[in-house]
Automatic annotation (TrEMBL), chain A:
InterPro entries: AAA+_ATPase, ABC_transporter-like_ATP-bd, ABC_transporter-like_CS, P-loop_NTPase. This is ABC transporter ATP-binding protein. It comes from the Archaea. Belongs to the ABC transporter superfamily. Keywords: ATP-binding, Nucleotide-binding, Transport. GO terms for molecular function: ATP binding; ATP hydrolysis activity. The keyword Transport applies. SUPFAM superfamilies: P-loop containing nucleoside triphosphate hydrolases (SSF52540). Pfam families: ABC_tran. The keyword Repeat does not apply. Residues 4-229 form the ABC transporter domain.
UniProtKB/TrEMBL annotation, chain B:
The chain crosses the membrane at residues 20-42, 54-78, 114-140, 146-167, 174-199, 248-271. GO terms for cellular component: plasma membrane. Keywords: Membrane, Transmembrane, Transmembrane helix. It holds the Pfam family ABC2_membrane_2. PANTHER family: ABC TRANSPORTER PERMEASE, ABC TRANSPORTER PERMEASE PROTEIN NOSY-RELATED. GO terms for molecular function: ABC-type transporter activity. It comes from Halapricum hydrolyticum. This is ABC transporter permease.
Length: 301, 278
């Protein structure tokens, strides 16, 4: 059974179309990255899964439960880190976790969760006094309460420092290893690349691509980048490189050549540079997820 | 039974706020002040109290200011109960846990009723005790029934204002609604006087019984008087139905209207809230 099954969902708010005919299946145990620029409809999709928002057309199921008709069973098996919300009232961190555990009818040690998300010492402080990052960690803790089968994380690294972001990734990885399905929305690409099995790219309410990251790279043309820094750029070198097979673009930035090309062409290009002048540095990279993202979403961001 | 958890959380949040303690202190001072004032100056009040009975006088002396105070305070602490959390976004967090929207509304009503009821009942017990001690007589049955009535009154206004908070989509609308409800009740009598003149209804004033029972306070007071008069030494003359000669002039009508005030705002709030996109 699929963990998440979204069929033909559209959502309009007045004249604004937030989602357009969305079909998406996330298998059990999968870590799925949901990418898109701000306003693409990521949060609306999550809201539909949790029955915060009802689709105008279409339906969604979580573990076979209809999200509207059986919302409570859905939420009993789901841990949610909503985007950008501080806290529930004036309770301490520990009472927040107790409240979440109670709602999930789960046994569990609030202190163990506090340890896990890295705010062990702050459990008895009121949440109003927490920093943004601490609140975010607490919200993650609430999502983890009761060992959910599905973890929905909406922009989970908002407000986290690099250590916090790394811990977040480790927790996602540990949950995935435990067999939890993770649905992870973000516009920060490195994080998605680091933890996700599959990625969906949402743009203006439409799902424009769903694939593994490697698959997306291939589909987008699989070009890599080569940067060669020289003491100076000799005349005619740019033209020589442009005529090589597999090269898609050559740009000069100061004394650095930035070449977009297939991986196989990189050796010959470096050799061209070596013969023509003094090479100071060579850097090579695969297509970044960012390039993919821009190519799929039209580059407005 | 997830509404219990929501109610408990709501109550716990409230008792951590300064406003709760300010409320408790004002409640205490008001009740004890009223009780002591009546006990101390009972000679001067005795002529004006219903039935010339000290116990009845004490309760009726305390009733009116306390109910008005409760009406205001419940508006203050309840108008944001749903819409405020909706605006802040914490409602999404609350509803990401396996609570239903009905449980959230129920929990809010129970929790905020407790926030009002705890200081109200505690202060009234002390206030009536002080007044009774000064008078040398405590009307036990009457006082207990009065306290139960105050509980009913608290739940009445809390559910009206929580219902209002669930219907509206902005805190300012909820405030406006609460103010309208309170102000209209203060001018209800004056509005009737104007209507009587403008529509030339002076011939038959019996319809005023229905009119006066339409507001939450009007309905509540009539039902309270009828209940107290039937079961205690409370004077029957305070029951408006006894002074009007018409078939519809019965406390049962007031009770039905009161029931509607309990049900309709909450039902409308729930209907709107359960169909809303958060």
């Amino acid at each position: 059974m699929a963990a998440i099954e979204i069929s033909g969902v559209s959502k309009r708010f007045g004249d604004v179309t937030a989602l357009q005919n969305l079909d998406l299946t996330v298998e059990e145990g999968e870590v799925f990255g949901f990418l898109g620029p701000n306003g693409a409809g990521k949060s609306t999709t999550i809201d539909i899964l949790l029955d915060h928002v009802r689709p105008t057309v279409g339906s969604a199921q979580v573990f076979g439960h209809d999200t509207q008709a059986a919302s409570v069973p859905v939420r009993e098996r789901t841990g949610v880190l909503p985007e950008g919300y501080g806290a529930l009232g004036r309770m301490t961190g520990r009472t927040h976790l107790e409240f979440a555990l109670q709602a999930k009818r789960a046994e569990g040690d609030p202190q163990a969760i506090l340890d896990r998300v890295g705010i062990a010492e702050a459990g008895d402080r009121r949440v109003e006094d927490y920093s943004k990052g601490m609140k975010q960690r607490l919200m993650l803790g609430m999502a983890l309460a009761g060992d959910p089968d599905l973890l929905i994380l909406d922009e989970p690294t908002t407000g986290l420092d690099p250590n916090g972001a790394r811990r977040m990734r480790q927790i996602v990885q540990a949950e995935a290893d435990r067999g939890t399905t993770v649905f992870f929305s973000s516009h920060i690409l490195e994080q998605v690349e680091a933890v996700c099995d599959r990625v969906g790219i949402l743009n203006q309410g439409e799902l424009v691509a769903v694939d593994t990251i490697d698959g997306l790279r291939e589909a987008a043309g699989a070009t890599g980048q080569l940067h060669v820094t020289m003491s100076s750029i000799p005349d005619g070198l740019v033209e020589t490189i442009e005529q090589r097979g597999g090269v898609t673009s050559v740009a000069v930035e100061g004394t650095t050549l930035a070449v977009g090309c297939e991986n196989a062409a990189k050796g010959a290009i470096v050799a061209d540079c070596y013969e023509a002048g003094t090479v100071e540095n060579v850097e090579t990279s695969e297509t970044s997820l960012e390039d993919l993202f821009v190519s799929y979403t039209g580059g407005e961001n | 039974m997830s509404w219990v958890a929501v109610a408990r959380k709501d109550f716990r949040d409230a008792i951590r706020s300064r406003m709760f303690w300010a409320l408790a202190i004002v409640f205490g001072l008001l009740s004890v002040g009223l009780g002591a004032a009546f006990g101390y100056y009972s000679d001067q009040f005795i002529e004006s109290v219903p039935g010339n009975q000290l116990g009845v006088g004490l309760v009726s002396f305390v009733q009116s200011p306390i109910t008005i105070f409760i009406m205001f305070v419940s508006a203050i602490i309840c108008h944001k109960s749903i819409v405020g959390e909706w605006e802040q976004g914490s409602l999404k967090l609350l509803l990401s846990l396996p609570h239903t929207r009905l449980e959230v509304i129920t929990g809010k009503i129970v929790g905020r009723s407790a926030v009002l009821a705890v200081p109200a009942i505690a202060s009234l017990v002390i206030g009536l005790g002080v007044g009774g001690a000064l008078l040398g007589t405590v009307p036990i049955v009457l006082s207990v029934e009065f306290l139960v009535a105050i509980l009913v009154y608290i739940v009445l206004y809390v559910s009206i204002f929580v219902g209002l908070s669930a219907v509206t989509r902005s805190s300012s609308l909820a405030v406006a609604g609460a103010i309208v409800l309170i102000v209209v009740q203060f001018f209800w009598g004056a509005i009737a006087a104007v209507l009587t003149i403008v529509l030339d209804l002076s011939g038959d004033a019996d319809w005023l019984y229905i009119y006066q029972s339409l507001t939450p306070n009007g309905a509540f007071n009539e039902v309270l008087s009828a209940t107290l008069a039937a079961t205690t030494e409370w004077p029957a003359a305070t029951v408006r139905a006894n002074n009007v000669d018409a078939v519809y002039a019965t406390p049962v009508l007031a009770a039905l209207i009161l029931l509607l005030w309990f049900v309709v705002p909450v039902a409308l709030g729930y209907w709107r809230f359960s169909n809303a996109d958060l």
